[in-house]
Write a structure and sequence with these properties.
alpha/beta; 4-stranded parallel sheet; 451 residues; 39% helix; Ubiquitin-like (UB roll); Rossmann fold; globular; de novo design (two linked rop proteins)
Length: 451
């Protein structure tokens, strides 16, 4: 898989004015270390934030820029920062970077950490200054061994240069940063499960409220942000709100740029930094190059395995949260997957639901029992042994595991692709129902919750 921000035939010229996340990347794919990073204006934003900006002004600037979380949920970053307590007597606060990138078909954060580790560190340093946090952790997916090595080296470089540790840039502000490799659970992408895991506990989501901003790591105020989110902060501080907003395409309600990609049997699978508001068709045809010879696009997911499937006719949707919502699903991580016409949707969904079922923390009944049930039914349909009513039962599970029905968002994300696959390709599911079947499971009957 290509980890690049270049367009087809390298025709896209990256610059600080148009590609705030990726303009510093090296053409050879090697990491950008401290000397080169500083030669490319690295840590200039941090110096500006420390010398010229009050801490609350940093928060307000990020809020005014319209930066939203890039991990998939899309919550406004400045608003989240504003939830941290104002009480100056609370002198122990934490900043956590969610680098547990385990969403299938997503690798954007990996590229940033492997090739631009100092961009993440600078983003965390500015954020720590704004939030008055004295310690930070990068909670890293355990399989990302190269990222761990590069981040640890970059942390040591920053310490030696006086950019981490005590009295940073002569400001009197202290900030320690640690790289923590996780044990490998998808559920750690949920911020409170991540906090539990960091504390050495089982990675179960916590009840909210209280939210991490009030009671987080070891009971102290904590802010959790995604890698790509934090990497946007230096450019916003350096170049301002109006410039950042101008990067997005007309019609987009999301500001700035986004790392987007395409995988599957496309001619040019890869990753690119693009303005919010580009269409799925541009991403698919101009950057990914369309389908390989001999294959036809059957459907696609816009942002990871937990987003609903779309048809080729939906490619003209704009790639931002509201644009994708108009065609019935979510932007997610922004890394799309093309499904070709050789793929059986029942087999694909069985594979997906096996993953989501295995990664459930098991805390709540709908997720713990509902996801394995979906796998059992899909496996039967895949083998041509489905019973009458199985499809209705699957649709019932989609409803019972939907938003607001479970303790966290794991199950709703798991069943979203299932519901959309049945919606668009029901005939493939019906083909797996045994012709002599007459058994009708209970969930085939309409059930009204709360009736």
């Amino acid at each position: 898989m290509t980890l690049t921000s270049f367009g087809p035939a390298n025709r896209i010229k990256r610059s600080a004015e148009t590609h705030p996340l990726t303009w510093r990347l090296r053409d050879d794919g090697e990491a950008v270390w401290l000397d080169e990073y500083q030669a490319k204006n690295g840590y200039a934003a941090a110096r500006k934030a420390f010398a010229d900006m009050a801490q609350d002004d940093i928060v307000q600037t990020v809020k005014d820029a319209g930066l939203k979380g890039r991990g998939g949920a899309g919550f406004p970053t400045g608003v989240k920062w504003g939830l941290m307590p104002k009480d100056e007597s609370i002198n122990i606060r934490y900043l956590l970077c969610n680098a547990d990138e385990m969403e299938p078909n997503t690798w954007k954060d990996r590229m940033l950490m492997e090739q631009l580790p100092h961009l993440l560190i600078e983003g965390m340093l500015i954020s720590a200054r704004a939030l008055k946090t004295y310690r930070g952790y990068i909670f890293l997916r355990g399989e990302y061994t190269t990222a761990a090595k590069h981040l640890n080296r970059a942390v040591e470089e920053a310490k030696a240069a006086g950019l981490l540790g005590k009295n940073i840039l002569g400001s009197g502000f202290d900030f320690e940063l640690f790289v923590h490799t996780g044990a490998g659970r998808y559920i750690c992408g949920e911020e409170t499960a991540l906090i539990n895991s960091l504390e050495g506990r089982r990675a179960n989501p916590r009840s909210k409220p209280p939210f991490p901003a009030a009671v987080g790591v070891w009971g102290k105020p904590t802010c959790v942000n995604n890698v790509e989110t934090l990497c946007n902060v230096p450019a916003i501080i350096a170049d301002g709100v109006n410039w950042y907003k101008s990067l997005a395409r007309e019609g987009s309600e999301d500001m700035g740029t986004k790392l987007m990609g395409f995988s599957g049997k496309v001619k040019n699978p890869g990753l690119w930094e693009l303005p919010f508001g580009v269409t799925g068709r541009e991403l698919f045809e101009d950057y990914a190059g369309g389908m390989r010879d001999g294959y036809t696009l059957k459907c696609w997911q816009p942002g990871g395995a937990g987003t609903g499937f779309l048809l080729p006719e939906h490619l003209d949707a704009q790639m931002y949260a509201g644009g994708i919502a108009k065609v019935g699903t979510r932007m997610g991580t922004g890394l799309a997957m093309a499904v070709d016409d050789s793929v059986n949707m029942v087999s694909l969904l069985r594979n997906m639901e096996e993953f989501f079922s295995r990664e459930s923390c098991g805390f709540c009944t709908p997720c713990r029992d509902g996801l394995p049930w979906s796998v059992k039914l899909l496996r039967a349909i895949e083998n041509g042994e489905g019973q009458a009513g199985d499809i209705e039962t699957l649709l019932g599970l989609v409803g019972f595991l939907g938003p607001g029905k479970t303790f966290c968002a794991h199950a709703p994300g798991a069943v979203e692709p299932l519901g959309s696959a049945i919606k668009y390709f029901r005939h493939e599911f019906e083909a797996g129902i045994a012709p002599t079947s007459a058994v009708v499971p209970p969930l085939a009957r309409p059930i009204v919750v709360g009736a």
